[in-house]
C-alpha cells in the first residue's frame, strides 16, 4: 500500500498548527516581547527534544564536526530567521510580511534542491506550485489590509523576502544531514544552538514581563508553542519532508496563511473576503495536483536510520 498520503497529511497538519498559532500567540505577544516569546518557545523545547532523543535512540551525541555544522544552521535557521521575521513584521505590513515570507520559500527550495539532494523539478510540480502560489497570494493580499509596495515598507519587504531564501536553504541543509542522522537528533541540536544564540537578544526583555500577573491563557500559549508548534511539529514536518522531498513538501507551507485567516475568523471575528475563498480553492487544487504525483527516487541514496519514522 502506498503510504505517501500519511506524509502529505503530516505536512498539512503541521502547516495548520503553525497557522492556528497566529491566533493563539497574538494575545500572548501583548505581554511578552516577540524575541523573548520565541526564546521561550525554543528554549523550553530543548529538554523535551533531548529526553525524547535519549529515550528513542539511547544516546544524544554527535561528532564535533557535525555539531559545528548544526551550530551554524541553528544560528541562521532558528535565531536569525525568527528575529528577521519579527523585524519584517515591524517594518512592513502584516500582509506584505506574510506574502513575502511564505510565497517565495517553496520556489527557492525547489530551485536549490538539486544542489543538496537528488530531486527533480517536474512539470506537475511546476503547474501545481504555480496554482498554489496564485492561491496563497489571493489568500494574503485579498484580505482587508492588501499588499503595499510603497517605499515606506522597503526594509521590511526585503527582510521578509530574505527569510524565504534563507529558510529554503535551512530546510535543504537539514535534508542533507538527515541522510546520516534521524530527524529527532538533528532537530534537538539545531534547536539547542538556536536557543543559545537567541538568549543574548532577550536580556532586556525579562524584566518588562509582569510574571506574577500571567494568566492561564499565557501559559497555554507557551505550552502550545513548545509542545505542539515546536517539538511535535518540527519532528513531523522534517520526517515528512525527508520522505516526500523538500521541493514538494515546502509548497504545503501555503496552508499556514490559509489557516491563519480561519484562526482570525474564529478568534477575532476578522472578515474573510471572496478573493481569499477563491485563493484557498486555487491553492488546494494546486497542492492536490502536486500530491498525486508519484515521486521518482534514485536507488535509495537517502539512508534511513533508526528513529527516522515520523514522530
TrEMBL record:
Membrane-related topology note: Multi-pass membrane protein
InterPro entries, A to Z: AA-Vitamin_Transporters, EamA_dom, EmrE-like
Location(s), subcellular: Cell membrane
UniProt keyword annotations, A-Z: Cell membrane, Membrane, Transmembrane, Transmembrane helix
One Pfam family in the UniProt entry: EamA
Spans through the membrane: 7-24, 36-55, 67-89, 95-117, 124-142, 154-174, 186-207, 219-239, 251-268, 274-292
Main location: membrane
Stretches assigned to the EamA domain: 8-140, 154-291
Family affiliation: Belongs to the EamA transporter family.
Protein's UniProt name: DMT family transporter
Lineage summary: Bacteria, Bacillati, Bacillota, Bacilli, Bacillales
Amino acid at each position: 500500500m502506498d503510504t505517501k498520503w500519511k506524509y502529505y497529511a503530516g505536512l498539512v497538519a503541521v502547516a495548520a498548527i503553525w497557522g492556528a498559532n497566529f491566533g493563539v500567540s497574538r494575545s500572548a505577544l501583548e505581554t511578552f516581547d516577540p524575541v523573548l516569546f520565541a526564546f521561550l518557545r525554543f528554549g523550553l523545547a530543548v529538554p523535551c527534544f533531548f529526553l525524547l532523543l535519549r529515550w528513542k535512540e539511547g544516546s544524544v551525541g554527535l561528532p564535533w564536526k557535525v555539531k559545528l555544522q548544526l551550530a551554524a544552521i541553528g544560528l541562521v535557521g532558528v535565531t536569525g530567521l525568527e528575529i528577521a521575521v519579527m523585524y519584517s513584521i515591524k517594518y512592513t505590513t502584516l500582509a506584505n510580511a506574510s506574502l513575502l515570507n511564505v510565497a517565495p520559500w517553496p520556489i527557492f527550495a525547489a530551485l536549490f534542491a538539486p544542489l543538496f539532494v537528488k530531486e527533480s523539478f517536474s512539470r506537475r510540480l511546476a503547474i501545481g506550485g504555480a496554482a498554489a502560489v496564485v492561491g496563497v497570494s489571493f489568500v494574503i493580499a485579498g484580505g482587508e489590509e492588501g499588499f503595499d509596495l510603497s517605499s515606506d515598507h522597503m526594509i521590511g519587504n526585503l527582510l521578509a523576502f530574505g527569510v524565504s531564501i534563507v529558510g529554503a536553504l535551512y530546510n535543504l541543509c537539514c535534508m542533507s544531514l538527515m541522510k546520516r542522522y534521524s530527524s529527532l537528533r538533528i532537530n534537538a541540536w539545531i534547536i539547542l544552538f538556536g536557543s543559545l544564540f537567541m538568549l543574548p537578544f532577550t536580556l532586556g526583555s525579562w524584566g518588562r514581563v509582569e510574571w506574577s500577573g500571567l494568566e492561564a491563557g499565557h501559559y497555554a500559549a507557551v505550552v502550545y508553542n513548545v509542545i505542539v508548534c515546536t517539538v511535535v511539529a518540527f519532528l513531523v514536518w522534517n520526517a515528512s519532508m525527508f520522505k516526500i522531498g523538500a521541493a514538494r513538501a515546502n509548497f504545503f507551507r501555503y496552508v499556514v496563511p490559509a489557516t491563519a485567516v480561519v484562526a482570525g475568523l474564529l478568534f477575532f471575528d476578522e472578515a474573510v473576503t471572496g478573493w481569499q475563498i477563491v485563493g484557498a480553492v486555487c491553492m488546494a487544487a494546486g497542492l492536490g495536483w502536486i500530491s498525486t504525483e508519484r515521486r521518482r527516487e534514485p536507488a535509495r541514496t537517502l539512508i534511513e536510520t533508526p528513529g527516522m519514522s515520523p514522530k
